[in-house]
Amino acid sequence: RKEVEQDPGPFNVPEGATVAFNCTYSNSASQSFFWYRQDCRKEPKLLMSVYSSGNEDGRFTAQLNRASQYISLLIRDSKLSDSATYLCVVSDSNDYKLSFGAGTTVTVRA
Amino acid sequence: DTGVSQNPRHKITKRGQNVTFRCDPISEHNRLYWYRQTLGQGPEFLTYFQNEAQLEKSRLLSDRFSAERPKGSFSTLEIQRTEQGDSAMYLCASQANTQYFGPGTRLTVL
What we know:
Chain A is mainly beta. Chain A is built from no helices and eleven strands. Chain A has strands spanning 4-6, 11-14, 19-25, 32-38, 45-50, 55-57, 60-65, 70-75, 84-91, 98-100, 104-109. By secondary structure, chain B is an all-beta fold. Chain B is built from no helices and eleven strands. Chain B is globular, with a radius of gyration of 13 Å. Chain A binds chain B through residues 4, 8, 41-46, 87, 89, 95-103, and chain B through 31, 33, 35, 40-45, 48, 55-56, 91, 93, 95, 98-104, 106.
């Protein structure tokens, strides 16, 4: 079983739509949680950290459910530029090495 | 450019040859990580350094792989006797609080 599981999608949505997806993680000792964004053939870039109380960054909202061990990301008012692969990432606090899901592909169409 | 840099960006080699990649982290970041990413998957942890000390190696890192960070600054990853299965994107990341990724080295083994 992979440490981080994601729905690969693709999620194909029109501009302005809301899209949401989540991931599950298996290591209950995980302490840090992130969403990274990866454009085609580019490196992953941090989109946002995910906090226990949930947090927003502009049009992006992330939620963490420790009891069920899942993390969600919601994108409101989708833009064409949101088209990317979104990687769910967890880490423990000892060595900070990151465990990535395989990614969820989002395509926003005009 | 003060980000993480990697060289070369692309490497094509024949099976059985040795290859070496270089990563220059962000100045003063004491942690440096190597990851490998294959098509359709998220990055997978290979190894990491705190300053010049290599603290952990993944079981993915066979005996053909070796990494160094001799002065606690740049790092090299060498693959000996390359195999077709080594074809992947090799990503380096450096960390103070957040991991920042370099653009990666795309290796193709023919």
